[in-house]
Specification:
about 260 residues, alpha+beta, Immunoglobulin-like, 2 domains, four-stranded antiparallel beta sheet, 4 helices, about 25% helix, elongated
């Protein structure tokens, strides 16, 4: 009898605990907050959270005149069955000019049924990017559909660095500097003309030289082949009276 009594007490105690736990779980009742997704959720599972990034047209073919940069937004709150307008503004600190260096969609919305959506920022390749680093700073603002109560958080207590949830900075230019795997010992002093000539002659992609040394196409035998190929090519061209020069007037040289 005592055993049955003890088991009954334990059973009803468990039910009481379960009931309390269920009562403590409340549905989200605050306003719907809009924020930039990558400030909380990284692009890749092992990647960093960011509120700024950048790119260069430097490795792109001259025929490429624009790039589309997808900027993810997300809602903290309810998913709606209607499209909801998003208030996105260009910060005055931006050095890029709307209509000259970039364009934004006419209607920016978080579409019906979506928790996360994408704003497609079109960046236009202009001649001044050869000498300038341009920045585009975008702000999410309150409107009738969304609030922006999520502002920022400290990501490094030592440096005080913060990540903004509602401000995103995109930097871009058209400068070309020596890529990560450019070997001066094999290719000599870097120049854009030298890189693109080498890629054109051997059907290589310029972007591959930004991969770590030893990657596919960048092993020691690969690098030595590129070097010897270019040395023979330049020597043949010079012997036929067509010496290849750099843009600064110096004769192109491979060690």
């Amino acid at each position: 009898m005592n055993k049955i009594l003890i088991l009954s007490i334990v059973f009803f105690s468990f039910l009481g605990l379960t009931s309390c736990t269920q009562e403590e779980i409340k549905a989200y009742e605050d306003t719907d907050n809009i924020y930039f997704s990558r400030s909380i959720f990284p692009l890749y599972s092992s990647g960093p959270v960011i509120d700024s990034t950048g790119f260069s047209f430097g490795f792109d073919n001259a025929a490429i005149k624009e790039r589309i940069f997808p900027l993810a937004i997300r809602v903290q709150g309810k998913v709606s069955n209607v499209d909801r307008k998003v208030n996105l503004t260009v910060d005055p600190s931006s050095t890029a000019v709307l209509g000259t260096h970039f364009t934004l969609p006419e209607n920016i919305v978080l579409r019906a049924g979506k928790e996360i959506d994408t704003i497609l920022v079109k960046v236009l390749r202009t001649s001044d990017m050869k000498t300038k680093d341009l920045t585009l700073v975008l702000n999410l603002e309150d409107n009738d559909f969304f609030t922006t109560k999520m502002k920022s958080r400290v990501t490094n207590v030592l440096t005080g660095k913060t990540i903004s949830f509602v401000r995103f900075k995109l930097s871009f230019n058209d400068k070309l500097s020596a890529p990560v795997s450019w070997s001066t010992a094999n290719y000599g002093v870097f120049s854009a003309k030298k890189l693109f000539l080498m890629c054109d002659l051997m059907d290589l992609q310029p972007e591959m030289f930004n991969l770590p040394q030893g990657s596919i196409g960048l092993t020691i035998p690969d690098v030595q082949y590129y070097q010897n190929f270019m040395r023979r090519y330049l020597a043949d061209q010079k012997a036929s009276g067509n010496t290849i020069y750099e843009d600064n007037g110096n004769e192109m040289f491979f060690p």
